[in-house]
Amino acid sequence: MTGIAISLQKMRKAILSAGDQTLREWQQLKKSLLDRHLVITHLLDSLPNNSVSNFDRNMLSEANTIAEASVRKIEPSSADADDFARIAADQNDCAERLSYLTAGILLKPELMKIRSIKGCLKGLTECEQKIDEAASIYNTAVIAFQTRMESRRAKFVSLFRIKTPTFCELHCGCTGNSSSVRMSL
Fold it and tell me: CA–CA separation, 135 vs 137, rounded Å?
């Protein structure tokens, strides 16, 4: 009987460890997403008045505010698939608006001469790379957690009411790709 108890204790620790790892990876993804929102804010502040469409500028500003707020308010340990879908949709809307604005900037050589704008565009490229990397690592951690939870022994351990979060993979493209969310069980 003690062998079973020890085995169950090891499984419980493995599940909790996988959950903790997933939360750490979420924090890194969250930081990368928030960094991009900060650079977008700097880009918007760097643009001279009437240099690009005020409509595009205002739409990006609004989308950026909404996307940033959705990332800040989510608590992944208590979130569900709808919460993650909302984040992905908000991020994708922001990325789409950003692509419209940056296309407008690139068409105006006088804007590309402004150092702060060039710096922001470079910063956005770096942020997108970090987001892609952090999202990949986070999604891998979610899959590892899901795999742990789907094992037969984990289902047995869950009978003892170990509180585990429901993690969801997050797929939000930096260039406005469509969002998708897969929920762990």
Answer: 5
Decide the pairing of beta strands 168-171 and 180-183: antiparallel
**What H or E segment, with its residue span, contains residue 21?**
helix 2-46
Asked if residues 135 and 156 have their Cβ atoms less than 8 Å apart, the reply is: no
DSSP code string of 128-151 = HHHHHHHHHHHHHHHHHHHHHHHS
Residue with tokens 């402004």: 114
What is the pTM for the complete model shown? 0.82
The radius of gyration of the chain's CA atoms, rounded to the nearest angstrom, is 21
Pairwise CA distance, residues 103 & 6, whole Å: 60
> Tens of pLDDT along 38-93?
999 999 999 998 888 888 899 999 999 999 999 999 888 778 888 888 999 999 99
Q: 152-157 — which CB contacts under 8 Å span 24+ positions? A: 153/7, 153/8, 153/11, 154/11, 154/15, 156/8, 156/11, 157/8, 157/11, 157/12, 157/15
**Whole-number pLDDT of residue 152:** 58
Tokens 């952090």 locate to: 134
pLDDT recorded at residue 128: 94
Q: What is the DSSP letter of 160?
A: T
pLDDT at 165: 63
